[in-house]
Write a structure and sequence with these properties.
Elements: H1 5-10, H2 22-29, E1 32-36, H3 40-52, E2 56-60, H4 85-96, E3 101-105, H5 111-114, E4 123-126, H6 131-143, E5 148-154, E6 157-163, H7 171-174, H8 191-210, E7 219-223, E8 229-232, H9 241-246
Parallel strand pairs: 1-2, 1-4, 2-3, 4-5
Antiparallel strand pairs: 5-6, 6-7, 7-8
Helix pairs in contact: 3-8
């Protein structure tokens, strides 16, 4: 079904982009995204997706809001300290847009916990800060042949990659071992860095879901210290256990205007 009059007015400005049609917008409305993490980075992604008209968000994030979260986590607010962040994010996003349904789960991220949540999902977004949860997301997404959008920050450096099963390799292909200098907790972070990479990942998700433009062709890194941006090729690693385990499930879901995905610098 194409857009209602209300929807046409709400999303009119993005449909002014050449090639971004009512059909593109209808694809966003028909999409379901699992968003793992609604901190600084994931919060910016949540705003981007709800703002653009993605039909359903499934939020997964365990733990309650603390005072020290609030320098960057803009889905939260002063009065929410001590309350579960998944529920606070759901409430805020539903206030923001009546066009997006939001489901929230205040649970730790494991492959087992993710399995029932991924049934009708089109895209998995990794906005977590630790590698055990990132790897669980990667393996659960691979198991269902789903694309995984990885977004991360390390100090002033932002990273983003869109992993397409069967085409690009996966997170475990890129990082077979945990980067030793990435602190899982207590790492330094400015809100503006989290929001920058969150906005980039939000745009990448919208492009992917709507079938608009071309995908990020590799691991994108950007330093907010000097604004140097680089793109590193993504390749499947022949000995990746995560890819080997999931290979029977891998389907390539390709609907980009640009055609086949190839990675290059
Ligand atoms: Zn792999």
């Amino acid at each position: 079904m194409l857009m209602t009059g209300e929807e046409l007015e709400r999303f009119r400005r993005q449909m002014l982009h050449e090639g971004f049609t009512e059909v593109s917008q209808a694809r966003l409305r028909a999409s379901t995204v699992l968003l793992a993490g609604v901190g600084g980075l994931g919060g910016a992604i949540g705003y981007a997706l709800a703002g653009a008209g993605v039909g359903k968000l499934i939020i997964v994030h365990s733990g309650a809001l603390t005072e020290s979260n609030l320098n960057r986590q803009t889905l939260m607010a002063d009065g929410g300290v001590g309350q579960p962040r998944a529920m606070l994010a759901r409430r805020r996003l539903m206030e923001y847009s009546r066009f997006t349904r939001v489901e929230a789960h205040d649970i730790p991220i494991t492959e087992r916990a993710l399995a029932p949540l991924l049934r009708d999902v089109d895209l998995v977004i990794d906005a977590r800060h630790n590698f055990p949860e990132r790897r669980a997301l990667n393996r659960a997404a691979l198991e269902r042949g789903l694309p995984l959008l990885f977004a991360a920050m390390d100090g002033l450096e932002a990273q983003m990659a869109l992993f397409i099963p069967g085409a690009t390799g996966c997170l475990d292909c890129l990082y077979p071992e945990d980067p030793p200098d990435w602190e899982p907790f207590g790492f330094p972070v400015f809100g503006a860095v989290a929001h920058t990479i969150g906005a980039m990942a939000g745009m990448e998700a919208v492009k992917h879901l709507a079938g608009y433009g071309s995908p990020a062709r590799g691991l994108v890194t950007m330093s907010l210290a000097d604004y140097r941006t680089r793109i590193f090729p993504l390749r499947p690693a022949p000995d990746c256990p995560a890819c080997a385990r999931a290979s029977h499930n891998i389907l390539i879901k390709e609907h980009y205007n640009a055609g086949t995905i190839t990675c290059h610098v």
